[in-house]
Design a protein that fits this description.
Blueprint: H1 11-45, H2 57-63, H3 73-93, H4 98-119, H5 124-150
Helix pairs in contact: 1-3, 1-4, 3-4, 3-5, 4-5
């Protein structure tokens, strides 16, 4: 089979490329699902302040000044665990360059967290904690744990 440049590409290489693309896509999708699942159950674990509509971005913006530190625990965990899950998925599915694709997913979530800072005005302490502790450390941890679990035992 020939690629766009006329070079011959082996079917095995094509399957590796497809698996690598799927690794990143599924890592992002599954990590996002984990993130949103935690966000969706967070109100039953730590109820929002009375009168704050947490179902819409506008409601959050209007009521975020009423949030106490405890109200930021679940969003932090959602970001950290969602990133961790997405990175593990990418690490497990990728056919080659697993760590590079795992980092790609982790960086994607970091960029999403950065965008969230501009969309939702949270306290500075939370923004710093979230960006510094939720994304890069969880990516690193997932890679360390994922590599340890995937290597054969002696």
């Amino acid at each position: 089979m020939k690629n766009w440049f006329g070079k011959t590409v082996e079917p095995l290489r094509i399957m590796q490329i497809v698996k690598n693309i799927l690794a990143v896509i599924l890592g992002i999708v599954i990590g996002s699902l984990v993130n949103m699942s935690i966000i969706n159950i967070s109100n039953s674990i730590i109820p929002p302040p009375n009168g704050v509509d947490v179902k819409t971005l506008e409601g959050l913006k209007a009521g975020i000044h009423l949030f106490e530190p405890k109200h930021f625990i679940m969003p932090f965990l959602a970001h950290a665990i969602g990133t961790f899950a997405g990175v593990i998925i990418a690490l497990r599915i990728a056919a080659t360059h697993q760590i590079k694709f795992a980092w790609t997913v982790g960086i994607f979530f970091l960029l999403g967290g950065t965008a969230n800072i501009f969309m939702l005005p949270s306290p500075l302490w939370f923004n710093i904690t979230d960006l510094v502790l939720a994304y890069i450390p969880m990516t690193y941890l997932a890679i360390k744990i994922g590599n340890r679990n995937s290597s054969p035992s002696a």
